[in-house]
């Protein structure tokens, strides 16, 4: 008898979900290995200009798109910029906003918090990194007739996708930086994005430079970030 793998529930198509089930001991080992791998992830500001094949970027974005989203609306667009001319425009606009932020918008407490990271308004990595992935959130979509269709939990959904994206970048063996110049409207103009899309995050992606220095930081302990009710 042929096994049923598809059926309709409430008039909507469903498929059977299966995945390999590991023993508890195996799951513990797998979770430890993944933690060890991800604990090596760091934000990097020194990139190599070495070429990264397009297929790698495509696979990373496909991985990001497996993230859950409100009502499965997938309210995101990933724009990949490799063109040197466009990267130069983005850098120029970003540095202008960053200069204004460091000089006028950020308060003393914020600036003091950034000192240990060694950041300033200069952003050369926006031209050096072989790819810039600009993530846009889609506040709404359109029907074929041009009418608006609401998206739900947009910020939460796109935030989850960005987390998947950064994880995929690290897993692939590349490095990244989360860059959020404020405001980011210039990205919509430079990339000529439609009015229903708004910039969410700018992520340079590539190989690390031959010499990279990162702040000697520590992550919060488990007891500082988790509460267990047992």
Task: Pick out its properties.
8 strands; four-stranded antiparallel sheet; 230 residues; NADH Oxidase; two-stranded antiparallel sheet
Structure commentary:
The chain is of the alpha+beta class and 230 residues long. The protein has one domain: NADH Oxidase (3-Layer(aba) Sandwich), CATH 3.40.109. Helices cover 38% and strands 17% of the residues. It has helices at 24-38, 54-64, 84-105, 108-114, 125-128, 154-172, 185-190, 222-225; strands spanning 6-9, 12-15, 76-81, 131-138, 140-142, 148-150, 175-176, 197-206. The strands form 3 sheets. It has a 4-stranded antiparallel β-sheet with strand order 3-4-8-7. A two-stranded antiparallel sheet has the order 1-2. α2 crosses α6 (154-172). The termini are far apart. The mean pLDDT is 92.
The total tally of domains equals: 1
Detail the poorly predicted runs: none
CATH homology-level superfamily: NADH Oxidase
Structural class call reads alpha+beta
CATH architecture field: 3-Layer(aba) Sandwich
CATH fold-level label: NADH Oxidase
Instruction: Spell the H/E element sequence.
Output: EEHHEHHHEEEHEHEH
Number of helices: 8
- Tell me, rounded to a whole number, the average pLDDT: 92
Oligomer kind: single chain
Give the termini distance in whole angstroms: 45 Å
Percent strand: 15-25%
Number of strands: 8
Give the strand order, joined by hyphens, for the main sheet: 3-4-8-7
Largest sheet: 4 strands, antiparallel
For the record, the CATH class is Alpha Beta
Tell me, what's the shape?
Answer: globular
Fraction of helical residues: 25-40%
What Rg do the Cα atoms give?
A: 21 Å
């Amino acid at each position: 008898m042929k096994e049923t793998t598809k059926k309709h529930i409430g008039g909507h198509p469903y498929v059977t979900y299966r995945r390999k089930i590991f023993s508890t001991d195996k799951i513990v080992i797998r979770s430890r290995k993944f933690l060890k791998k991800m604990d090596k992830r760091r934000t990097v500001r020194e990139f190599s200009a070495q070429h990264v094949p397009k297929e790698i970027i495509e696979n990373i974005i496909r991985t990001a798109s497996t993230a859950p989203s409100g009502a499965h609306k997938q309210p995101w667009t990933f724009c990949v910029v490799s063109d040197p001319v466009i990267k130069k425009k983005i850098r120029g606009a970003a540095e202008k906003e960053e200069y204004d932020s460091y000089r006028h918008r950020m308060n003393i407490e914020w600036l003091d918090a950034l000192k240990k990271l060694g950041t300033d308004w200069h952003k050369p990595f926006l031209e050096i990194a072989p790819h810039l992935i600009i993530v846009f959130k889609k506040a709404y979509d359109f029907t074929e007739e041009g009418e608006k269709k609401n998206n739900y939990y947009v910020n939460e959904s796109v935030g989850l996708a960005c987390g998947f994206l950064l994880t995929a970048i690290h897993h692939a063996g590349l490095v990244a930086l989360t860059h959020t110049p404020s405001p980011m409207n210039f990205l919509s103009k430079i990339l000529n994005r439609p009015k229903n899309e708004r910039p969410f995050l700018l992520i340079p992606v590539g190989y690390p430079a031959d010499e990279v220095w990162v702040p000697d930081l520590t992550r919060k302990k488990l007891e500082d970030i988790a509460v267990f009710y047992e």
